[in-house]
Design a protein that fits this description.
Number of strands: 11
Strand order of the largest sheet: 3-4-7
CATH class of the largest domain: Alpha Beta
Structural class: mainly alpha
CATH topology of the largest domain: Rossmann fold
Shape: elongated
Strand content: 5-15%
Largest sheet: 3 strands, antiparallel
Number of domains: 4
CATH architecture of the largest domain: 3-Layer(aba) Sandwich
Helix content: 40-55%
Bound molecules: glutamic acid, zinc ion
Distance between the termini: 86 Å
Number of helices: 19
Radius of gyration: 32 Å
CATH superfamily of the largest domain: HUPs
Amino acid sequence: MSVRVRYAPSPTGLQHIGGVRTALFNYFFARANGGTFILRIEDTDQERSHEEALEDLYETLAWLGIDWDEGPGRGGDYGPYVQSQRFELYRSYAQQLVADGKAYYCYCTPQRLDALREEQQQKKSRMQGYDRHCRDLTEEQRSAYAAQGITPVIRLKVPLEGKTTFHDELMGDITRKNTDISPDPVLLKSDGFPTYHLANVIDDHLMGITHIMRAQEWIPSGPLHILLYEAFGWDPPKYCHLPMVMGKDGQKLSKRHGSTAVRDFRRAGYLPEAVVNYISLLGWSYDDKTEFFTREELEKVFSLEKINKAPGVFDYKKLLWFNGQYIRQKPAEQLKELILPYLIADGVLQEPITAQQQEVIDRMIPIIHERLRLLGDVSEMTRFLFQDIPTAESAAFIPKKLDMKKTLEILHTGRQMVEQMDGKDDAELETQYREAAAELEVKLGDIMMPLRVAVTGSTISPPLFESLRLLGSEKSLDRLDRAITQISKEVG
Ligand code: GLU
Ligand code: ZN
């Protein structure tokens, strides 16, 4: 039996870390087994489905390099793969269940159901939810309701006794008493729309899905889905509910921890390789040491057996570190292409890029290559090379524990050293700066810091000597002079 799996998002919001983890696990599992990966759009909740969410889904999957074998835009033998285009089918299957005595028409009005809920709450009644009022209506009662013009919903007949078990590959058997399952959930709404449960089960069956890998939040639906498979007389697929994704504080990952929308990571300058690699480790591991996997490798080695029971912990810092590692692996030429859009979007450069700017870019690449952790940081790191920067506020120049007067002295000394720096290498410069520091009775860092502020205006620029060389002594001296003038005025 060849593996068929699916990612079945509801387009109600942006793709987040958890959803993409589900997509990746299904995708890798299919690839590793020579199976088929299906994308199915579960847009049965038309009120909450959004065009923007759909666009985001396609963009995100394309960015991550996840392609599907069957689904929207790809076709396949089991389409359409968008649930809103399958409503006829759900309706006829639901009606079939009614004909088979496994489901029934319910004519209760929203008013009746509201009143029922209120009564149950007031009486703190043990019985919560639908009271199965219409489960055993006679033919005459039904016709009478129909004559009133009430369009019924279709509800599943949940057995009144017994238990239902579903087997999860990871968690083992999960059993629930049928009396604990929601009393006769709606399968088809009165407007003819299916509920999630109905559409999901029918599609998984008709699309020949062999394994369902999805978030743990769906475990409570498991027994109900098994009852639906039984009602239809179908064999259920294998289930594997994926471990939770948590923040470092042990709480379910959410916006409280930071952005979880993959789009935000893309925009900030994460590389898809890093994101794919890191997300794949959220609840899966190959062994207890290997951390780096290319997509191609994951397509070979991914297996269900190595999914962990323990939750995955999403650590923003770790992802950032991964990203830095992946940036380092990029060839210089490619890095150049990757950072250019950020420099342009942030207004550091305008197109067309001049030959002189090209040259600066070429020279700065090897220096930022080692330091960049996010592509988006390039702008703050290198703005000073392309644009004149306003002199910072005087306070920003003063090293800790020193004062304005000392800072001015430092800037003067620094200026002299910058004037004579051409041709000196880092080691020579460092010796010289150390000597100057000793003479001024300050720390080495106290000399570097004000110079750096004067020349780059930024705290995340490359190290001082590199920055000075990249900018050139003429511009560097000019900026130093402006800083000196400004601070002299304050010292008086
Ligand atoms: N549409 C559901 C979701 O958004 C799919 C759940 C499932 O995989 O069965 O998560
Ligand atoms: Zn009813």
